[in-house]
Amino acid sequence: MNDWELETLALRVGELRTDIGSHSEPIFLTSSFVFESAQQAADRFAGRESGVIYSRFTNPTVQAFEQRLAALEKADRAIATSSGMAAILTMGMAYLRSGDRIVVSRNVFGTTHVLFNQYFTRFGVEAIFVDLTDLSAWKHAVNSNTKLLFIETPSNPLNEIADIPALAEIAKGVGAKLVVDNCLCTPALQQPLLLGADIVIHSATKYLDGQGRVLGGALVGNEQDMQEAYSFVRSAGPSLSPFNAWVLLKGLETLTLRMEKHSQNALAIAQWLAEHSAVSSVYYSGLEAHPQYALARKQQIGAGGVLSFELKDGQTAAWKLIDQCKIFSITANLGDAKSTITHPDTTTHGRLPSEEKIKCGITEGLVRLSVGLENVEDLRKDLEQGLK
Length: 388
Ligand SMILES: *Cc1c(COP(=O)(O)O)cnc(C)c1O
What we know:
Low-confidence stretches: none
Number of helices: 15
Bound molecules: pyridoxal-5'-phosphate
Radius of gyration: 21 Å
Helix content: 25-40%
Largest sheet: 7 strands, mixed
Mean pLDDT: 96
């Protein structure tokens, strides 16, 4: 197994077979498991015998998903959660205590911002926000109380790239862990642990499912860190449902193929938009003109499906384009096989004060695409008629 490539791992790790030999993994849709004797129950609870007990913390379908994801991220272990936010909450509860500091890239997912800024701070955890790409700002922001550095790379929606090895070095200098939300690339395109990160976070809701069906999340890392995350999930219950785990397990089977196609389609759209007269700039780490193209090439084997671009005529042009699209769905979600289109300024980033929007590069003319798996020529024509 250790020498298998990603495509094989995605299909063959964590295979579950019942005694009737089902080829596809079964869903163990049960809350609890029965024991053969009082002695066995006591042994399972005491940890003297391994085996499943109760689906809040041990379910075979969830475990199969965890094993497969851990193999893809080259990690000891993964812990599944009910959503991406539940994974980030678990991270905070497992690794932070009152008086600690967490340093976070400014342009993280909006709800992550809210969780750190409005909730963790209630428990005496200080959250400091810095620019993803400004290494000197990171060096300044860390101190001896810093336990976690948290980033998303590429960032959403502007596709900025963090230098993962450099940030890992800064984290190590103060004894902190570097956590990477690997939502946009997935392990099919980027494996942060191999680049020096300590923990990977996933919103499995996005590309790991890949077809917009279920919510899910995960933490991935070494055995010791995952044991602490497991302990919190077991005690607090932000657990993944076996049904959702099964959907995600099936999603992983096609992950490498999908991410390759998402990247191809997005690159073609980005190149076309870059030449369009209504467009002033395109943000996509797969374009050679991207200021961090070389870094992206070093860390990622593709740039993924999310890109954004700026329209010269501001919000009027952006809304007109969005309303005229016939294929692109108007939704804030990303990572679906179906292409989506979003106006960040009035939706995902609408709650930010305007000076914060400016710092994050969110303007009135900015449009974000999550480029799906439809025929790329159809997608291009759909945008073209909307830009007329
Ligand atoms: C969607 C998203 C999350 C939150 O995940 P949910 O599954 O919606 O809870 C976290 N991080 C990133 C980058 C996301 O895109």
